[in-house]
């Protein structure tokens, strides 16, 4: 089932030079981008800085309106939805951001943070807020006894788990992860990726996974869209894009990824397996 | 191999509200000419503190013990004035963010020339010539014109090239690169790594390369020091550390790195 359709989306920003002879010009951040997300799948959008991947994510999340084109969710055109329609959309689509600390209110307890989406939607959890919070904390691998703590009392990896728990509070159909593991140390990153994959297996929602790190994308995605200068230059299954890239830019990108010396790596793994 | 640079039992202690904390504990390594030592670790491992200690750039109140010797000369305990003659001259550095390391109000040419003149003297015209040559060496096209441009007129990768040009203009014996490619796109990162390796092989400069990225370390370093919470966990040839790690922590780190060429289950 097709959950989300992004159709011919373009986003232009007006830039203005400074001084007496100020000139207005437009910059096209996203240029005629189309893709679909199936229910239960992970679509990764990869690209370098300025490729338009985050702008695309923000449009898909309805945090930004496109200049032209449309966003269709569950068969409903939500491109310019407002009020109740938008509220329903927000109930179904949640975002996990890169920096856990700047996306969590430092003055709120974990309980208040995690239940905030319910508060905005006017939903009262069946077993009460505390039980609801603790259950979610347990699901994302946090100690449920810490529901009264503040974000600053958690490590970066734990804070990202709070952000994930908050995204799951409304039981969304689509979770958009915008560089959600990029700021984490490699050992923590592996754990959070593992968590994201487990949650999807348990609940069957979809991810749009925005990232610049191709090795991470390879781990988590079923399909991959490669963006360059505002356009999708290639989209396909993970194995096709990584194993048999068609576009020149995709090939350059894959070749540039630093690799641990494969011979050393193979020797180590052999030793560890034996 | 001659030992150009020796760090011997370096310990760095910082004052905190909870009392003094050792952020670098008994770290030792050596860098030869034309040799790259990679220091790798996660956040809080003390890898950057080690570099700052070497350069005498630690925060106020920091205490150091041990020994840091460049070509036999002890650097720990030198006065700020003495260290200033070393920094940018015999030892130079490249940091993660070129934009915050460059002064936006001056042309890149002026900034490179100033570095050169501070240490080597000479006329302004000669220094500008050095700047143009340095820009050419790091692969900036049309250096004769670009030398008069300001930092914002360069892309991120070019700015890092400018930083490298500045770091190398006095022909240092040792270059310290602290996460020099972390802020760069992967295609640009590949170019900068190639540039560093090439410059090193032509100049014979020793290099300390600090990063959190094990794959990057594997491609550039001959020897690797793995750090964790200030402790030197493992130190050996790159081949040994990557193919036969002795320490559990190194193994865990290596296992955690996602591989782009691995078969993955759907």
UniProtKB/TrEMBL annotation, chain A:
SUPFAM superfamilies: P-loop containing nucleoside triphosphate hydrolases
Domain ABC transporter: 4-254
InterPro entries with a match to the protein in the record: AAA+_ATPase, ABC_transp_ATP-bind, ABC_transporter-like_ATP-bd, ABC_transporter-like_CS, Oligopep_ABC_C, P-loop_NTPase
SMART domains: AAA (SM00382)
Keyword ATP-binding: yes
A single MF term (Gene Ontology): ATP hydrolysis activity
Cited PROSITE patterns: ABC_TRANSPORTER_1 (PS00211), ABC_TRANSPORTER_2 (PS50893)
Keyword DNA repair in record: no
Single GO BP term: transmembrane transport
Keyword list, A-Z: ATP-binding, Nucleotide-binding, Transport
Family as reported in the entry's similarity comment: Belongs to the ABC transporter superfamily.
Protein name: Peptide/nickel transport system ATP-binding protein
Lineage of origin: Bacteria, Bacillati, Actinomycetota, Actinomycetes, Propionibacteriales
UniProtKB/TrEMBL annotation, chain B:
Domain ABC transporter residue range list: 5-254
Pfam families (UniProt xref): ABC_tran, oligo_HPY
One GO BP: peptide transport
Taxonomic lineage of the native organism: Bacteria, Bacillati, Actinomycetota, Actinomycetes, Propionibacteriales
UniProt protein name: Peptide/nickel transport system ATP-binding protein
Organism: Kribbella pratensis
Family note: Belongs to the ABC transporter superfamily.
Listed GO MF terms: ATP binding; ATP hydrolysis activity
Membrane topology: Peripheral membrane protein
Protein location: Cell membrane
Main localisation: membrane
A cellular component term, taken from the record's GO annotations: plasma membrane
The keyword Nuclease is annotated on this UniProt entry: no
Keyword annotations of the record: ATP-binding, Cell membrane, Membrane, Nucleotide-binding, Transport
InterPro entries according to UniProt: AAA+_ATPase, ABC_Ni/Peptide_Import, ABC_transporter-like_ATP-bd, ABC_transporter-like_CS, Oligopep_ABC_C, P-loop_NTPase
């Amino acid at each position: 089932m097709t959950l989300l359709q992004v159709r011919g989306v373009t986003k232009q920003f007006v830039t203005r030079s400074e001084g007496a002879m100020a000139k207005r010009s437009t910059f096209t951040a996203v240029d005629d981008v189309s893709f679909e997300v199936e229910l239960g799948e992970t679509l990764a959008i990869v690209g370098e800085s300025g490729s338009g991947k985050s702008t695309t994510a923000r449009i898909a999340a309805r945090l930004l309106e496109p200049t032209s084109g449309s966003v269709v969710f569950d068969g409903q055109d939500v491109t310019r939805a407002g009020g109740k329609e938008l509220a329903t959309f927000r109930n179904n689509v949640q975002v996990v951001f890169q920096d856990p600390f700047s996306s969590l209110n430092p003055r709120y307890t974990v309980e208040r943070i995690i239940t905030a989406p319910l508060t905005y939607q006017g939903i009262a959890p069946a077993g009460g807020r505390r039980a609801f919070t603790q259950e979610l904390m347990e699901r994302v691998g946090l100690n449920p006894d810490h529901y009264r703590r503040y974000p600053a009392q958690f490590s970066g990896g734990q804070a990202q788990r709070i952000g994930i728990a908050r995204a799951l509070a409304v039981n969304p159909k689509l979770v958009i992860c915008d560089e959600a593991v990029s700021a984490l140390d490699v050992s923590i990153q592996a754990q959070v990726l593992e968590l994201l994959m487990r949650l999807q297996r348990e609940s069957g929602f979809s991810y749009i996974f925005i990232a610049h790190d191709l090795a991470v994308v390879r781990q988590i995605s079923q399909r991959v869209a490669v963006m360059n200068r505002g356009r999708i230059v290639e989209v396909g299954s993970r194995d096709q894009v990584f194993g048999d890239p068609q576009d020149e830019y995709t090939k350059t990108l894959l070749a540039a990824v630093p690799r641990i010396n494969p011979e050393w790596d193979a020797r180590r793994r052999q030793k560890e397996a034996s | 191999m001659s030992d150009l640079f020796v760090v011997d039992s370096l310990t760095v202690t910082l004052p905190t509200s909870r009392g003094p904390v050792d952020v670098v504990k008994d770290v030792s390594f050596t860098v030869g000419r034309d040799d790259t030592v990679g220091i790798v670790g996660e956040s809080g491992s003390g890898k950057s503190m080690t570099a700052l200690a070497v350069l005498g750039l630690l925060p106020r109140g920091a205490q150091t013990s041990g020994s840091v010797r460049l070509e036999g000369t002890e650097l720990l305990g030198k006065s700020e004035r003495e260290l200033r003659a070393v920094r940018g001259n015999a030892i130079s550095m490249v940091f993660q963010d070129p934009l915050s390391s460059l002064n936006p109000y001056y042309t890149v040419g002026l900034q490179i020339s100033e570095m050169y003149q501070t240490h080597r003297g000479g006329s302004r015209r000669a220094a500008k010539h050095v700047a143009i040559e340095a820009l050419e060496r790091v692969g900036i096209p049309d250096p004769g014109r670009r030398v008069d441009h300001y930092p914002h007129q360069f892309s991120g990768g070019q700015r890092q090239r400018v930083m490298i040009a500045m770091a190398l203009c006095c022909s240092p014996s040792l270059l310290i690169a602290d996460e020099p490619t972390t802020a760069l796109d992967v295609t640009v990162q590949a170019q900068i790594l190639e540039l560093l390796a090439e410059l090193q092989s032509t100049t014979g400069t020793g290099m300390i390369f600090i990063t959190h990225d094990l794959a990057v370390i594997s491609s550039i370093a001959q020897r690797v020091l793995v750090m964790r919470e200030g402790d030197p966990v493992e130190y050996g040839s790159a081949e040994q550390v990557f193919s036969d790690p002795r320490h559990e922590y190194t193994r865990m780190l290596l296992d955690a790195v996602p591989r782009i060429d691995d078969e993955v289950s759907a």
